[in-house]
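Hi R.,

Here's the chain you asked about this morning:
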Amino acid sequence: MVERADPRLSVSQQCRLLAVSRCSVYRRPPEVSEPDYGSRRMAAWLATQGHLVNRKRVQRLMRLMGLVAIYQRPNTSKPAPGEQGLPVPARRAVDRAGQSGLVRRHHLHPDG
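And the predicted structure, written out as C-alpha coordinates:
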Protein backbone atom coordinates (compact mmCIF):
# COMPACT_ATOMS: atom_id res chain seq x y z
CA MET A 1 0.00 0.00 0.00
CA VAL A 2 2.54 2.58 1.16
CA GLU A 3 6.00 2.13 -0.32
CA ARG A 4 8.72 3.45 1.96
CA ALA A 5 11.44 3.18 -0.65
CA ASP A 6 9.60 5.19 -3.34
CA PRO A 7 11.77 8.26 -4.08
CA ARG A 8 9.00 10.17 -5.90
CA LEU A 9 6.64 10.46 -2.93
CA SER A 10 7.54 10.62 0.73
CA VAL A 11 5.76 8.45 3.25
CA SER A 12 3.81 11.42 4.62
CA GLN A 13 2.60 12.37 1.13
CA GLN A 14 1.52 8.79 0.38
CA CYS A 15 -0.34 8.60 3.69
CA ARG A 16 -2.10 11.89 2.98
CA LEU A 17 -3.20 10.66 -0.48
CA LEU A 18 -4.47 7.35 0.94
CA ALA A 19 -6.05 9.00 4.01
CA VAL A 20 -4.04 6.76 6.33
CA SER A 21 -2.25 7.91 9.46
CA ARG A 22 1.51 7.64 9.38
CA CYS A 23 1.69 5.75 12.68
CA SER A 24 -0.32 2.90 11.15
CA VAL A 25 2.36 2.56 8.47
CA TYR A 26 5.18 2.17 10.99
CA ARG A 27 3.31 0.14 13.58
CA ARG A 28 3.92 -3.60 13.47
CA PRO A 29 0.95 -5.94 13.79
CA PRO A 30 0.63 -7.54 17.23
CA GLU A 31 2.09 -10.99 17.61
CA VAL A 32 -0.30 -13.89 17.90
CA SER A 33 -0.49 -14.97 21.51
CA GLU A 34 -1.71 -18.15 23.10
CA PRO A 35 -5.49 -18.46 23.23
CA ASP A 36 -7.24 -17.79 26.50
CA TYR A 37 -10.25 -19.86 25.55
CA GLY A 38 -10.64 -23.61 25.57
CA SER A 39 -12.84 -25.48 23.13
CA ARG A 40 -16.03 -25.05 25.18
CA ARG A 41 -15.66 -21.32 25.62
CA MET A 42 -14.55 -20.86 22.02
CA ALA A 43 -17.62 -22.75 20.76
CA ALA A 44 -19.86 -20.57 22.95
CA TRP A 45 -18.17 -17.40 21.67
CA LEU A 46 -18.55 -18.54 18.06
CA ALA A 47 -22.26 -19.15 18.73
CA THR A 48 -22.65 -15.54 19.88
CA GLN A 49 -21.04 -14.47 16.60
CA GLY A 50 -23.59 -16.48 14.60
CA HIS A 51 -21.43 -19.55 13.88
CA LEU A 52 -23.03 -22.65 15.35
CA VAL A 53 -20.10 -25.03 15.71
CA ASN A 54 -19.87 -28.25 17.67
CA ARG A 55 -17.37 -28.25 20.55
CA LYS A 56 -15.63 -31.35 19.22
CA ARG A 57 -15.09 -29.66 15.89
CA VAL A 58 -13.50 -26.72 17.69
CA GLN A 59 -11.30 -29.19 19.59
CA ARG A 60 -10.20 -30.83 16.36
CA LEU A 61 -9.42 -27.51 14.67
CA MET A 62 -7.52 -26.22 17.70
CA ARG A 63 -5.49 -29.45 17.74
CA LEU A 64 -4.72 -29.11 14.00
CA MET A 65 -3.61 -25.51 14.48
CA GLY A 66 -1.55 -26.39 17.55
CA LEU A 67 -3.56 -24.12 19.87
CA VAL A 68 -3.74 -24.99 23.55
CA ALA A 69 -5.75 -22.99 26.07
CA ILE A 70 -3.98 -21.44 29.04
CA TYR A 71 -5.28 -22.89 32.28
CA GLN A 72 -3.98 -24.64 35.35
CA ARG A 73 -3.09 -28.22 34.48
CA PRO A 74 -3.62 -30.96 37.10
CA ASN A 75 -0.70 -32.23 39.20
CA THR A 76 1.68 -29.43 38.26
CA SER A 77 3.31 -29.59 41.68
CA LYS A 78 4.31 -33.24 41.35
CA PRO A 79 7.98 -33.80 40.55
CA ALA A 80 8.87 -35.62 37.35
CA PRO A 81 9.65 -39.35 37.68
CA GLY A 82 13.17 -39.79 39.02
CA GLU A 83 13.41 -36.25 40.46
CA GLN A 84 13.18 -35.36 44.11
CA GLY A 85 10.44 -32.98 45.23
CA LEU A 86 11.00 -29.83 47.22
CA PRO A 87 10.89 -30.10 51.01
CA VAL A 88 7.89 -28.62 52.79
CA PRO A 89 9.01 -25.74 55.07
CA ALA A 90 6.60 -26.77 57.87
CA ARG A 91 8.20 -30.22 58.06
CA ARG A 92 11.67 -28.75 58.55
CA ALA A 93 10.50 -26.54 61.41
CA VAL A 94 8.97 -29.35 63.50
CA ASP A 95 12.07 -29.89 65.61
CA ARG A 96 11.02 -27.04 67.92
CA ALA A 97 8.40 -27.93 70.54
CA GLY A 98 6.05 -24.99 70.00
CA GLN A 99 5.54 -25.65 66.32
CA SER A 100 4.08 -29.14 66.42
CA GLY A 101 0.57 -27.60 66.50
CA LEU A 102 1.22 -26.01 63.13
CA VAL A 103 1.91 -29.40 61.65
CA ARG A 104 -1.24 -30.91 63.14
CA ARG A 105 -3.43 -28.09 61.85
CA HIS A 106 -2.20 -28.58 58.32
CA HIS A 107 -2.50 -32.37 58.47
CA LEU A 108 1.21 -32.93 57.96
CA HIS A 109 3.03 -35.71 59.69
CA PRO A 110 6.51 -34.82 60.98
CA ASP A 111 7.96 -38.09 59.67
CA GLY A 112 7.02 -37.29 56.13
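The CA atoms of residues 15 and 22 lie 6 Å apart.

Let me know if you need anything else.
M.
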